[in-house]
Amino acid sequence: xxxxxxxMKELKTRFDQVFVYGxxxxxxxxxxxxxLVPSLQKTPGNWCLIPRFHPNxxxxxxxxxxxxxxxxxxxxxxEILFPLGNRVVRLDVGIGDDMAVVCDAYFSSLGxxxxxxxxxxxLTIAVLPKATMEEMYEAKLDVIPAVYLGGAQTLTExxxxxxxxxxxxxxxxxxxxxxxxxxxVREIEKLLG
Length: 193
Hints:
By secondary structure, the protein is of the alpha/beta class. It is 45% helix and 12% strand. The chain contains 10 helices and 5 strands, in the order αβαβαααβαβααβαα. A 5-stranded parallel β-sheet has the order 2-1-3-4-5. α2 (26-41) links the parallel β1 and β2 (47-52). α2 packs parallel to α4.
């Protein structure tokens, strides 16, 4: 959408690199931000971060009870992001895939927009704190697909992100396709039909 392009163009006049974080579930997004934010603090350069959270958690003002907090997850996450100051910018237009296409680097754990970022050759990092890995194993997922297929680097401990900011190899990029929700629905309908 044009609003995404206009917003990104404006950010590119202020920052050399625009990073996007795509968060999903409440608990693991919280833990991922606790790993990502101090890593970003160690990463020099003129960059900004656009945090994008699952719309249902924001729209429904979900209370962060599962992490023992009485605030909304959005309030908890904003507190975690606070040390980054004016490097945190909001661009609440478009969907996650739109951001994955136009950003310089994309951070997430299991988000489908990682596929789009990798397909487009964007620097992609899987943010994998212990809590996310435990949740993944509980769900019987043994690997992070984006990492296993060679498209994403992994962040498991606080560090300068520059060594991880590398483009996915061409042979890995070919293994990824952006999510096409309409196609997925048609395929599911065929299976059920």
